[in-house]
Structure formats: C-alpha cells, structure tokens
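Dear H.,

Thanks for agreeing to be a second pair of eyes. The structure we're designing against is below in token form, covering all 183 positions.
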C-alpha cells in the first residue's frame, strides 16, 4: 500500500502536480465563569479563560474514521451523545487514554443547538463547536482536565487537555465552549 502511494505521488510530481497536505487539527476553547446560575445574554462572566490546543486521542480518531466510512457501531459526537467531560486528574495527556484520569469527573451533555456545524465547501465548513453549561450543582471540584466524549459513560474520548482551570464551587456556573477544526 505504501509503495502504491509513493508511485502515485511520483507520477503526480513527474506531471508537475505538487502534493501538499494542508489539514491540521486545531482546538480553540473558552471557559466562562458566572456567579450563581445567572447566565444570559445580558450577563457578564466574572472570569474568562480562552486558549488553543489539546491532545487528540487514538480512540477518538478511530471513531471519526469509523463514522466517516459509514460505520454505525460507534456513537457519533452529535447532540444526543456528545459530552464535555471535566475532571481533577493531572496525569499528562496520552493518546492511548480512553477517559479522564481524575477521581472526580463529570460528563455534561450539550447545551441546546450544540454541537454546531455548518455544512458547505468553503472555509466556514471545517469547524464544529461543542458547548456545555455546568450549573451551580455540578462538577464542584478543581478542574485540571477536560475532554470531549460520545457517551455518558464509556464510549470514546475524542481529545483531552490537562490544565488547571480553577476550583468550581456551588457559587458559580461555568460554560465551556470547544471549537475544533481541520484546516
């Protein structure tokens, strides 16, 4: 198979057609912290953390390829199944991991209308956005890790990030937004 790919590449290069892989996994995320459960368009978060980066997990990649090729035995990362998980684990991200590593962890379903993706053939179609709101009653512990999942329990972990985001308490609601793209 590898030899065939090289032969094809060689023919294209000989014909003056250059081969250039441009797609790169990108992750941009934002955590907005609100006092109490008062979240709305006229409410301002008391703190916002916004960053880039995470680690893609092998099981998550396999799930994407499985769904892309018509498979149905692995759940999609859709409105029914998608979850943003948070935990207190500090172990370094490893692509072999299948779950968050902390003793305390919570997977939260998507906010209404999420995940969001606009189909098309231009640059706006390369992005999917996930968002979950953790109320004052949920995930009250130090957040050191997060990931995107396709199930309440088990399933596949698409990606994972290890970073201390602070300690969530029952005095606050936190809104977590993750934007993934291949561009």
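And this is the sequence the design step returned. I haven't edited it by hand at all.
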């Amino acid at each position: 198979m590898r030899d065939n790919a090289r032969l094809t590449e060689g023919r294209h290069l000989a014909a003056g057609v250059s081969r250039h892989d441009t797609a790169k996994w990108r992750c941009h995320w934002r955590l907005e912290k609100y006092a109490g459960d008062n979240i709305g368009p006229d409410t301002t978060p008391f703190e916002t953390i916004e960053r880039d980066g995470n680690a893609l997990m092998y099981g998550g990649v396999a799930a994407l390829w499985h769904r892309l090729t018509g498979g149905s035995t692995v759940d999609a990362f859709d409105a029914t199944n998608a979850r943003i998980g948070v935990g207190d684990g500090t172990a370094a991200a490893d692509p072999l991991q299948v779950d968050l590593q902390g003793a305390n962890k919570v997977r939260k379903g998507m906010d209404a209308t999420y995940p969001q993706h606009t189909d098309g053939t231009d640059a706006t179609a390369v992005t999917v956005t996930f968002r979950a709101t953790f109320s004052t009653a949920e995930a009250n512990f130090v957040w050191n890790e997060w990931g995107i999942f396709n199930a309440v329990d088990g399933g596949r972990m698409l990606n994972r990030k290890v970073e201390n985001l602070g300690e969530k308490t029952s005095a606050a609601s936190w809104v977590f937004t993750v934007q993934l793209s291949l561009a």
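Two observations from my side: The beta strands are 25-35, 47-52, 55-56, 83-87, 105-109, 127-134, 142-149, 157-167, 172-182. Residues 24-182 form one domain.

Warmly,
E.
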